[in-house]
Amino acid sequence: MPSRLLTAGAILLIATGAALGAHPAYAADPVAPFTVQGTPVELNSASGSAPELKPGLSRTTLPTDTTSRFGIVKRSAGESLVVTVSGFATEKGQPYFSTDDHELSVKLKLADENDTSCGSTISSSNSRVSKDDNLWLLSTTAFVDAADTDRDTSYDDKCATATSFLVEVTREAPATAQPLPAEILVSREPKATGTGTPATAAQMSELVTQPKAVGPAVAPGHGFSDAPTLKPGGYPVTLCLGETVYYRVRLEWGQRLGASVQLPQNGSQVAVPVQTTANMTLWTPQRVPIDPSSSSDQSTLSANEGDSKLLSSFTAPVAWGNRTLSYKNGTDATGKVGLNAAQWTDLPGWYYVSVTTVPFDAEAAAGAAKAKPLPATVTIDVQGQPTKGPSYVNAGNQPVAEPAAGRLSVGSEKSGDGSSTPWARIGGGVLVVLLAAAAVAWALRARRRTS
Questions:
Q1: pLDDT band for position 397 (cuts 50, 70, 90)
Q2: Which of 130, 154, 277, 350 stands 20 to 30 A from 406 (CA)?
Q3: How far is residue 443's CA from residue 9's CA, in Å, rounded to a whole number?
Q4: Radius of gyration of the chain from Cα atoms?
């Protein structure tokens, strides 16, 4: 019965590959899409029929029209609220560059007769892709702080006491754009006491993370929700032109992150065949991009030259008080981090590292088929010992437990829950391998009985 044995063996090989999560050869792969996970939800164009968005992660698909679509978010009195919408802009037949502007916006409003706008939105390069720019991840954030902070420039007493808000999501896209699968992250944080002071300028000095000797490879994710966890150290990764890979790092109160990418990996003797732009971005647990004022997180690789480039970025130490920083503290108060980056390094949780390589221009894109796998080294450095954070209270100032990690950022390293934790996938893969092994054993026994 050789055919039965061959079939069972094939099952074992396929199952083993699936269980280990081995990525096929990057050079032959299409570019992996942005991973979208979470509870399915359909936003409604009628604000009166808007679905409720629960704390945590939801997923939806935004059409190509410019119609506003709505959801509802609720919070307890005194809580801060952050809503981030993320999706990767794509166009038909345009793998790298946009034919026109793409923009994603999110606003928080009161469902009142005045259509009152609440809170602030974060304006960054990630909320818009301009014509002829590289197609990119669109990610935009709206928030209402529980207390009057300088980062919430639209703080309003009426909004401060509200417990229900409309979430208005609007998309601008050209005719060639495709529907946008998107994640919606809702983060709620209780009122805090004993919040402490912000990090000092000296604690926010420039941090350049030098490449470290590589250990075992960790297959990257292709979005926030499937990003694997990295500990301090060096990790080999292979990058595909046009691809964005994601990792996550856990930070506690008082800790800061430094990260770097060396590409090509030193000693690899690999040169890119087309001029390539490489970019690294750090993201907070609320998915706000961190762009330190003195980071070197973008570089250009010249065609047919194998010189390594080092992209490096860093955060401030995690401190609740960072959100109170403003220009009133002085232009040097945030050291080399910068005001916006410091203000949003204010909660412990998962911080993310994304790395993208794209053609430098249309001429480079025309030769993209010649691109080869690009070996690189990702290095992670976590500085500082965990410190005590603030205490949390309810609207009546009675103590409440510190929010579980899932309330502030998806997944909990201690409990192993959350869509981005790999234990369930690994367990499922082991089961597949065991079933396949049983199939092989059955085939061998059947063969012996018939011979």
A1: confident
A2: 154
A3: 9
A4: 24
